[in-house]
Amino acid sequence: MAVKVIIVGLGSLGKRLAEELSGKKGVELVLVDSDEATCKEAADRYDALVLRGDGTDPKLLGEAGVQGAVLVAATGSDPINTVVGILAKQAGAERAIVVLNDLALRTACQTAGVDIVVSPVISAANEIQGYIFGTEALDFSVAVSGGARMAELSPGSLAGKRLGELRLPKGTIVPLIIREGKATVPTDETLLSPDDVVILLAENEEKLSAAKRLFSPASSGT
Asked: What pTM, to 2 d.p., does this model score?
């Protein structure tokens, strides 16, 4: 059964995704952009249905066949991507992936039911593909050099604790925390905020899984 993938926004990331998914077996591709020249170029280049219009228009999303589809909101505007993702979920999209340059809207997206928020600084087209085809976890774990693993995690019940208080499994570290759209290198004294994005690096999948359990909503962090 084919997977319908709708990409709203044909900027650099949208085009890269379209390039990789166009003509791929088992993929029904729909591309949406507001620019006429961009749409014409896409229609000539990709094996896809190309629609010109505003991705925040529910009628256009219906024309694209959003119900049951995987939608990627990848315009150059964080607010537009947020609205597109929320509308897609309301219209019955199976999954919605929202690309945000500034992660300040991450909580709003998650509260509204958006499945995943992607920072293009951390995640790229190949990770989005992995999520589309169900080969990646919801936190966008990605393979990195040497067999190590990296993941974006939300603090959950650990919010309010200092990083040094966490009992991180041996072989895992937190090299970065993204807060209000800015990446910072944390210390043991760094207090975790509910809206933080914690970047965790683990030696292998087993240790990554152990760290995920620590960050799970059911965890008390003790």
From this structure: 0.63
